[in-house]
Structure formats: structure tokens, C-alpha cells
Amino acid sequence: MKMRRFIFLIALSCVVLGLGGGPAAPQPGGPAARRVIIFVWDGLRADDVTPENMPNYFALARSGVVFADHHAVYPTFTMMNSASIATGTYPGMHGFYGNVVYAPNAKGKNAKGVAIDFLGPAFIEDFGVVEAVRDSYQGRLTLVSTMLQAAQAKGLTTAAVGKFGAAFIQDYHRGGIILDEDAAIPLSFAKELQNAGHALP
Q: What residue spans define the domains of the chain?
């Protein structure tokens, strides 16, 4: 079931990025529009992606760019690595150091609507936790801007799709479309998906 939902999210992200309007539309007589899609597979071992084990992923990888010697910034910490992907910097620059955070001044609810106890370390792979921590830091979750913030500043349409928390940190100011297991943002996008017959969490 998780794999089916994940594949749905990927397919939907391709539709969102492929059909989205905005500045990426080609200009008459100009070059064709270019779109960039960055796939980050949390916990996927490169040696598992073979024609025998994962024929569709293998074909997708071969139709784009594959980083042959990619390594995590810090092994097994999803959110620290996601922040590095989001900003293009190491943890010492972006200031995000793990999957849990201690932010005793933060207040909020997780994606399921449950109040978060910030008096102890909080697991941050959840957009509600990310937003509460962001707000307690006066909107600065990372010490440097993200790639999507830079794209949005140039008027480009963006979408972050994937695992909860890890997708949301790419666009933690909600400047574009965000889709994960717990959320479809903005609300207009969620309603569009529901009107098209897609069940949302």
C-alpha cells in the first residue's frame, strides 16, 4: 500500500510539473521550455535499482542524470540530508542537524491535528512540526534560502512532492505546490485533486 501511494505521488508530481502554467511556458519563436525534476529516494540503495528489481525506476534513471557517487551528507538523517538538498549546502551552513529538534518556544499541532509537546525533542518529519519550529524561529527554518525559494523569487512555479517532512522542508514557506502523505498544499490544489476524484489523506 505504501509503495502504491508513493508511486501515485510521483506520477502526480510529474503531472503537476508537466502541466503547470506560469513562466516556464515557451515563448513564441524562442527555445522550448525546460523543466527540472529532482528525485530524491530516501533510503533507496543504488544497487537495488536494476532492470530486474525495479525496471521502471531503472528506465527513469537512465532517461535523466544519475549521480554515480552520491553519498548522504550524514547517513540516516532524512531531514538533515533534505535540508542539504533544499539549500545546496552542508549542515554547518544551513543549520539543520537531525530528525528531531528541541524548540521549547514552539507551539503547534502535527499534520494529524495532535498538539506537539515541544518541551522535549520533537520528531520533525511532519509538516505541522516543521511549521511550528519555523514560526518559533521567526520564519527562518534554515539559515540560507532554499533552491525553491530562489526559483519562486524568479517567478517560477515549483512543486515539492514526496515523503512527509522531507518534501515540506524543500518549500517550508509554502511558496508553491506541496504534496506528501499528509498534505496537499495550497488548499486550492487539494480541492483540485479532490474534484478530479483523487482521495486525499
A: 2-37+71-195
